[in-house]
Amino acid sequence: MDMPFPAGRAIVVKPRPGFKSLLPVLAVAAVAILPALPFVNPYIQAVVVRALIFIALGQAWNIVAGIGGLLSLGHGVFLGLGCYVTGILFNEIGLPPWFGVWAGVLVALLVALVMGSMTLRMRGVFFALATVAVSLACDQLARHFVDLTGGDSGLALRFLGDSLWAAQSRSPTPFVYAGLGFVVAYYGITRIILTSRFGLEMRAVRDDETAAAASGVRVFRTKLLGFLVSAAMTALAGGLYMQFYQAIDPESAFGLGQAIQLQLPALIGGLGTAAGPIVGGALMIVLSEVTNWGSTKLNLVGVDVLVYGLVLLMVVLWAPKGLVGMLSRRRVRR
Amino acid sequence: MNDLGTALVPVGQALLSGVLVGGVYGLLSIGFSLAFGVMRIVNFAHGDLVMYGMYVGVVASTSFGIDPLYALPVSFVLMALLGAAQYLLVFKRFVGSATLQQLLAAIGLGLVLQMLAQVVFGADTRSAPSMFSARYILIGPLFISAAQVVAFVVAVVATAAVEALLIATRWGKAVRAVADDIEAAEIVGLSAQTINITAFALACGLAGVAGTIMVTYYPTDPSKGLSLMPIAIIATTIGGLGSIRGSFLGGIFCGVVQQLTAMLWSSALQDIPLYVLLLFFIAYRPTGLFGLRTE
Q1: pLDDT exceeding 70 applies to what percent of chain B?
Q2: Interface probe, candidates A75, A220, A313, chain B, greatest B C-beta count within 10 A
C-alpha cells in the first residue's frame, strides 16, 4: 500500500510497520490480562477502571473540541444526564441500565440538539458561554428536584450485589472489561471519523469556517452533527460511570471540576488525535492518584483541583498540541 | 384598591432589591465586558479577582480594623496590578480571538487563584461589615439595606467614570482604536501592547472594586468568584459583549429577574430564567441590547 506520491512535501507520515502497529494490540492485551495477574488487587483494578472511563469520556469530548474545535465547557451535562437518567429509571421503575442508558443517550441528544441549534450558528465564544450556562442550570435543577435526583447529596443506585441484569458487581473486574470495550470502540469511532469525509469537514470548519463554507461544507450542519455524536458518546459512557461508581451528585456531574476532568485527557494527550485521550487519560489518573495520596499526607483539601488548574494552564501555554503532538512533531522533523 | 396596594408591595420590594443588587452585578460585569470588547479575551478568572477584592475588604476590616469602604482604592490598585501580571503571563498571547486555548487557560488560572485563596484565607465564609451594614432605610412599606444603596452608588459612579474615560480621554480613544483594528492603530503610532495592559488592568481593578463593595453585605469564601461568573456572563451577553453601558444595564436586568423569580417561584431556582434568556439572546440577538454592531 505505497502512496502514489513521489518524494516531496510529506503530508502524511507513514508509520513504520512493526512495533507501532502492534502497540494498540499490546495495550489492549495488557489491560485484558491485568485482573488475572497475582499482584493486581481490587484497588489497582478500580484505578484502571477510572482511567478507562475517563479515556472514553475524553475521547468523546475530543470529537467535539479536538476535531471540531467547538469550545464545549459543559460536557458534564451529558455525562450527568447519562448517569441520572440511567439511575432514576433503575431506582424508580427497575429498568435495567442496559436499556436505561439509551434513554439517557436520547435525553442527552435532545438537550444537545436544542443547545446546538440555538448557539452553533454564532461565533464559538457564544457556544462556550452557553455550555457553561446549561451546566449551571442542570446543577440548580438537580439540586432542586430532590424527590427525583436526591438533591445535593445525590442519587445512589439500589445495590443488588452481583447481578448481570442490573449490571452491578462487587468486584471491579467486569468493569475493567466493560471500560476496555468502551475505550476500544471509542478509539475506533474516532479513527473512523478522522479518516472520513465528515471528519475532514469538521476539521475544515475548525481551521477556517469561511473557507470551509466557500468549499461547499455545510458548516452549521457539520458542527451540530459533531456535537450530537459527542454528546451521545458522553451520555453512553455516563451509563458505565453510573454502574461503576453506583452514585452521582450535582457537583460530580455538572461541576467545573468534572468538566475539567473530561477535558484533561485530550488536552494532555493531544487534541484532535485518536491516541491523545488514551495517553492523556492514563497520565491524568496517575496524577490524581499521586495528588490524592499527597493531599491525605499533607492533610490539605483541594490540592487535586490546584494541580488540575496548574496542569491545564501549563498544557495550554506550553504544550498546546499535547504529548502525542510533541512526539509526532519530532518524528516529522527528523 | 387597598388590596391591590398590599399585593404590589412584594413586587415593588423585588424590583427595588433587584435594581440595587443588579447595580453591583453590573459593576462586576463591565470589567469582564471591557476585556472582551478590547482584546477579545473571555476572562473566566474575572470572578476570582472579584473574590480577591472581597478578601481585601475582609483583611482591611479584620486585620487593620479599617472600614472596607476605605479599602476600595487599595483594592483597585492591587487587582489592577494582579491583572497586569495575568495579562503579561497568560493572556498576552491570546489577544484578538477567543480560542479554546484561551478559555481553558483562563479556567486554569481561575482554579489556581481559587485554590491559593483557600490556602491563604481558609475555606470558611468571611464577611466584612462597613459603617452602613445592618442599617436599613424604610420607604413607605419597602425597606432597603443601606450597604446595598452605597454599593449601588459606587457601581453607578464607577461605570460612569469608565464610560467617560473611554469616550472623553485620549487614552479612551486609543483603546477604542486598538479594539477596532489593532494593526491600523499600530500604524498610526499607538502601542497596542501598552494600551492592552492598561485596559486589562482597569478591567481587573474594577473587579476588585466590585468585590470590596460587595463584601459589605455579602459574605465571601474562595468559591465565590466562580459562582459570580455566570451572572457576569449573562449580564454581558444580554447587555452586549463589549459594551460598558450595556453590561451595566444587563446586570440590573439580571438582578431584577433574579429577585422576581425568587418571589414568584423559588429562590433556589432564581437563576434558571436567566440561563434560558441567555440561550435566547445568543440565538436571536447575539449583539445583546447595546452590543457591537459589526463583527
Answers
A1: 98
A2: A313
Pick the closest to residue A50 from A253, A334, A225, A286 (CA basis).
Answer: A286
Nearest CA in chain A to B110: A309
Buried b (16+ CB within 10 A) or exposed e, A275-311: bbbbbbbbbbbebbeebeeebeeeeeebbbbbbbbeb
The domain total for chain B is 1
Residue B155's pLDDT band (boundaries 50, 70, 90)?
very high
Residue B180 counted as domain residue? yes
Count helices and strands in chain B by DSSP H and E runs: 11, 2
Instruction: Write down the pLDDT at residue A3.
Output: 45
The answer, for B238 touching chain A at a CB cutoff of 8 Å, is no
- Using an 8 Å Cβ cutoff, are A56 and A179 in contact? yes
The answer to whether A302 contacts B271, with C-beta atoms less than 8 Å apart, is: no
Distance between CA atoms of residues A71 and A60, nearest Å: 13
Residue B289 lies in a domain: no
Residue B178: inside a domain: yes
Greatest CA span in chain B, whole angstroms? 68
- In chain A, what residues touch B272 (CB-CB under 8 Å)? 137, 140-141
Show the beta-strand stretches assigned E in B76-206. Answer: 136-139, 142-145
- Residues of B within 8 A of A316 (CB-CB) are 101, 104-105, 108
Assigned domain for B108 exists: yes
Q: Average pLDDT of B264-273?
A: 85
Rounded CA-CA distance A248/A83 in Å is: 7
pLDDT at A333: 45
Q: How many CB atoms lie within 10 A of CB B226?
A: 20
Domain with B184, as residue range(s), is 15-121+131-284
Tell me the pLDDT tens digit for each residue of A4-63: 444 444 455 555 556 667 787 888 888 888 887 878 788 889 999 999 999 999 999 999
